[in-house]
Design a protein that fits this description.
The chain is mainly beta and 124 residues long. The chain is 0% helix and 47% strand.
Length: 124
């Protein structure tokens, strides 16, 4: 299970940080990903972090603006989002990968459990 927090309404150029706290499994054994779904669009994976945080991955759409991190002592994965744009609007989901590394990380089929979603709205 996951508890997500940190969404909200911000203006373009502002920042938000999402948190996702896990329970019920050994968090430190698994890579973690972030997905988002915009209205009328499919869910897309845009970031992943390996179990030990040695490796992080981003799609071009968020690279340089978003930062994924994790604290295994707190069973929590974070997403720092800077310089937000209106096209970043959507529902954001954390997810636990099947493995400790980010194999096929953009595919939702590689993840076994999901957070409840956090709404992020970027609008002036």
């Amino acid at each position: 299970q996951f508890v997500q927090s940190g969404g909200g309404l911000v203006q373009p150029g502002e920042s938000l940080r999402l948190s996702c706290t896990a329970s019920g499994f050994t968090f430190e054994y698994y890579a973690m990903g972030w997905f988002r779904q915009a209205p009328g669009k499919e869910r897309e994976g845009f970031s992943c972090i390996s179990s030990s945080a040695d490796n992080t991955y981003y799609t071009d759409s968020v690279k340089g603006r978003f930062t994924i991190s994790r604290d295994n002592a707190k069973n929590t994965v974070y997403l720092q989002m800077d310089n937000l744009k209106p096209e970043d609007t959507g529902t954001y989901f954390c997810a636990a990968h099947r493995y400790y590394y980010c194999s096929g990380w953009t595919a939702s089929s590689m993840y076994d459990s999901w957070g409840q979603g956090s709404q992020v709205t970027v609008s002036s």
